[in-house]
Amino acid sequence: MPETMNRSIPLEGLVPENDADVDLQGATINRDALRRRIIGLGEDSIHKSYYPQLQQRLRELHRFKTLLDGSNEGIFLIRLPDSRQPDSDMPDVAMVDVNESACVQLGYSCQEILELSFFDLFPTKDHRRLESFLSTLEQSEHGRSIITEFIRSNGECFPVEVSSRLVRFDLAPYAVVVVRDISERLRMEEELQRTGNLEALGVLAGGIAHDFNNFLTAIMNQISLAKLHLDQTDLILEKLTYAENACLQAKGLTQQLLTFAKGGEPVRRVASMAALVGDALRLVLAGTNVKPMLTIPDDLWLVDIDPGQISQVLNNLLINAVQAMPEGGMLRVSVRNVMMHAEDALESTLEEHLPHGDHLCVTIQDSGPGIPEEILPKIFDPYFTTKAQGSGLGLATSYSIVRKHGGTLTVKSKLGQGATFTFCLPATRSETDTAQRQPSEPLPSTEVAHRILFMDDDDMIRESMGEILEGIGYTVTLVRDGREALEALHRAREDNQAFDVAIMDLTIPGGIGGVEAVGRLKAVDPLLKAVVSSGYSTAPAMAHYREYGFDAVVAKPYTVSELRHVLDRLMSGDEEEG
């Protein structure tokens, strides 16, 4: 045995230096046998020169330790409990070793960390998740990882990704845990998301500016033409009608944009989908060479929807289908009742998106060329379009409308096999269709000059609408805000000239708006009918106007015909469903 090996095993004090055999408490012990027993080597190991192997193993361990300490990730070796302690809610997970990076990350010395439980390094809210994470390591062949937070010695937290793998030493379970600081990664992901949002917003803003400039140009051109031909009444009427239609198109654009507004809700009533689908098909297919095939059961359920918004969805999807078949083709439209978990429920691709309960689903299938696979994920993005003519808002708007109705909109397509769009809405099994159809022409006005209180803070709107209402036979009082409206109501009652209807702007900057004023007005005159009007068509008071004390709603901008229809219905006592 080399002399250096003898120095590593101090035998001084155990046996005399010169005696080969020594009697200790009556037992004779050979010096070489004692040395072998203390070193733990058998006879064969000594004769095979174990010392070089031991030195090699020590060098390997040193390199491994150097590698661990040089890693940027925190690395822990923890002893896993065999079972939960009976008198403790959480098992005690002891740390056996830790590298320098972990100590730097956490602000502890290595000795301080090893005196802690592994769970002490994480927020209390994540302890159960970590316990489950560690307890299931044996079930994962390639290890597992989770996202959580580390707690520094000063109490600060930072996000980390914790990866772990099970190892065994002397049959005891251990876990090698690697903790990676992901603060920078999350920051970069957030920055990329912000950049993507800004790019999408730029595309959206550019598209809006383009479309609105086109509408404004058309309106200005028609007004200019009308001014050039003041002596030709018929021509003036034609040009002004064209300008009015351009305004309605601009209104349609704003309505599509408002469907993206956070918190916007549909103005719902119970309606028949069969009627809406039939009307949309007649409108879209007029003058085309596309053949429709419509399938609707006789026992179709009703839906609680905003009919105008759902009509917009139908029109958008049908127009897309027709444009996909410029040379003509077959358009298959089916409407069906769907009860989840019934034997005739939808195919699994849709069941994943539908909650339990009754649904009504509309499927629109064209025989066009189909949609390329790389484009499918983008078709619902605002202003994304592959068409030379088109804004790209149609599908994005449809998707938003359906989602705000509590429904789903999905698409399936393969090149050469057309495209199939399906949207599903929550349904009701009511046997009565309470939907009221708005007549194409306004109801005839009565001969009685009804009194209207019109409230709006915009001078041009207030004065022009006063002239319009008086021009169609109403007596009108104009006010700027809720305070003036209340004063006008008191004066009218003192003169025994009560108002029949109050048309109230929803938002009055610096003044009393419609929501606050309507309660005060009806406290003075409970018989007063109130109509809420606003350009914020997604405001809760517009969607649920009855809950706010109103009797009807009209969204800006509106035509005289639309307003007159609402007023005539209120005057006759035939109030719309809210």
Relevant terms:
578 residues, alpha/beta, Beta-Lactamase, 5 domains, 5-stranded antiparallel β-sheet, 18 helices, 40% helix, elongated, disordered N terminus
Task: Describe what you observe in this structure.
With 578 residues, the chain is α/β, with parallel strands linked by helices. The protein folds into 5 domains: 3-48, no CATH class; 72-181, PAS domain (Beta-Lactamase); 186-258; 269-428, Histidine kinase-like ATPase, C-terminal domain (Heat Shock Protein 90, 2-Layer Sandwich), CATH 3.30.565.10; 451-571, Rossmann fold (3-Layer(aba) Sandwich), CATH 3.40.50. The chain is 40% helix and 21% strand. Strand 17, helix 16 (514-524) and strand 18 form a beta-alpha-beta unit. Helix 8 (183-228) packs antiparallel against helix 9 and helix 10 (273-285) runs parallel beside helix 11 (307-323). The model is unreliable at 1-29, 37-43, 342-352 and 432-447 (pLDDT under 50).
Describe the structure concisely for a colleague.
The chain folds into five domains: 3-48, no CATH class; 72-181, Beta-Lactamase; 186-258; 269-428, Heat Shock Protein 90, CATH 3.30.565; 451-571, Response regulator (Rossmann fold), CATH 3.40.50.2300. It has 578 residues and is an alpha/beta fold. It has 18 helices and 19 strands.
Which percent range describes the beta-strand content?
A: 15-25%
Biggest sheet: strands, sense, closure? 7 strands, mixed
The multimeric state of the shown protein is: single chain
Shape: elongated
Q: State the domain count.
A: 5
What is the CATH class name of the largest domain?
A: Alpha Beta
Number of strands: 19
> Mean pLDDT, as a whole number?
75
Instruction: Name the poorly predicted regions.
Output: 1-29, 37-43, 342-352, 432-447
CATH architecture of the largest domain: 2-Layer Sandwich
Instruction: Name the CATH superfamily assignment of the largest domain.
Output: Histidine kinase-like ATPase, C-terminal domain
- Taking the alpha carbons of the first and last residues, their distance comes to 100 Å
CATH topology name of the largest domain, in short, is Heat Shock Protein 90
**Cα-based radius of gyration, to the nearest Å:** 40 Å
The helicity comes to: 40-55%
Look at the helices and sheets and give the structural class. alpha/beta
